[in-house]
Recover the amino acids of this structure.
């Protein structure tokens, strides 16, 4: 029986979002420097290769989000990641609009 090997697909990342990933990578790189953590140290503590650490510091979109989390964990910053989308202002506004619309229908 032969196994089909799925072709690796690179994520489609638009320029604006690529800039955000690059900023994340720069933030991670600076956090490492502030702590005097080398790529080798981060590699040893995460089990990731130094090339992957370098890609993370560059904000490479092909690196798995789990790898970013592993590095943030070593830096003691993984809780910052947990805050992403925590305060969903747009989602609450959309929900409120829907709820107000339902309220108007019930009161008529």
């Amino acid at each position: 029986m032969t196994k089909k090997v799925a072709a690796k697909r690179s994520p489609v990342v638009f320029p604006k979002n690529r800039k955000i990933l690059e900023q994340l990578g720069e933030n991670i790189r600076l956090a490492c420097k502030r702590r005097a953590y080398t790529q080798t140290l981060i590699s040893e503590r995460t089990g990731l290769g130094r090339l992957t650490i370098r890609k993370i510091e560059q904000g490479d979109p092909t690196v798995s989000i789990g790898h970013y989390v592993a590095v943030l964990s070593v830096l003691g910053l993984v809780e910052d990641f947990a805050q992403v989308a925590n305060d969903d202002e747009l989602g609450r506004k959309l929900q409120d609009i829907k709820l107000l619309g339902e309220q108007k229908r019930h009161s008529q």
About this structure: The radius of gyration is 20 Å.
